[in-house]
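Re-run with default settings, no changes from the original entry. Doing this only to confirm the output is reproducible before filing.
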Amino acid sequence: MGAYILRRLLLIIPTLLGIMIVNFALTQFVPGGPIDQIIAQMEGEGDVFESITGGTSEISGNGGGDERYLGARGLPPEFIAELEKEFGFDKPPVERFFLMMWNYIRLDFGESYFRSIGVFELVAEKMPVSITLGLWSTVIAYIVSIPLGIRKAVQDGSRFDTWTSGMIIVAYAIPGFLFAILLLVVFAGGSYFQWFPLRGLTSDNFEELSLLGKIGDYFWHITLPVLATTIASFATLTLLTKNSFLDEIKKQYVVTARAKGLAENRVLYGHVFRNAMLIVIAGFPSVFLGVFFGSSVIIETLFSLDGLGRLGFEAALQRDYPVIFGTLFVFGLIGLVVGILSDLMYVFVDPRIDFEARET
């Protein structure tokens, strides 16, 4: 197993490098770089894309903009050159890429172009919101989906199985943001009840509360956004659990266990559960990572939660390259490491699995 883990760790380097190369290359062709954003703000135009639609001129994607475009604005060339030097756009793209990667290797992710704060500090500031949504959504989905999937498998074809399948399909079909709006309208003072707060992760007087008060306030605030984030997760996990159990229940060792007179609960949870839950439990790291990274920017906006989703969206709009590439590097690295952890979870749940033997 040690050799397999070492190979996977070594594969992280070329994989991560490939991710960064592709994304860095794509940004060279995207119009409206950070220089253009600053110029648009200084000219009072609000956003560089308003200038594009206004037909002033075509912008190049190198971050500095087209000379005719800049000249039409009447800005001194010396000022533009100074901006390019400050942001590093006076260097060729290849040199900028390798300089960026060298800094990342040393865990230097630079500073945001527009926020005057380090990328690492900025991500750490937004991380609690995304961890809250990702962790609680995943835990709740597993707590509900696994027992529900087991019962559906045991009662396959029954009325309970039929109507729960219908409810799951409907829940899966509802977009998360639409469900979030429904929750706000019904339970957050929209038109009916004022049971939950409308925005934020904590109350304004959070620091003045007791320990129990802080815990209660925290759960009070996250209830609606976590429900909105979790709604679509039930379907996949529940049906995966059900199908895994159905496959195991039909196998010969289950028939033998029942023939020996073992109680049904002993058969299900003593024999079937371990084999059926292998793929479900071992996939927990990747499921959490998917919810963590995929927490909807719309849901964060609706509930006024300042998380990584909004951070990434705003960074993309502003062409804040240090934030974009710094977070991409960190999250790409985390994703690759979590992939290895998922394999280790398979071995932990079922020691009979040997990845090295499968590769030989």
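The chain has two domains: 31-108, 129-177+224-359. The chain is about 70% helix and 0% strand.
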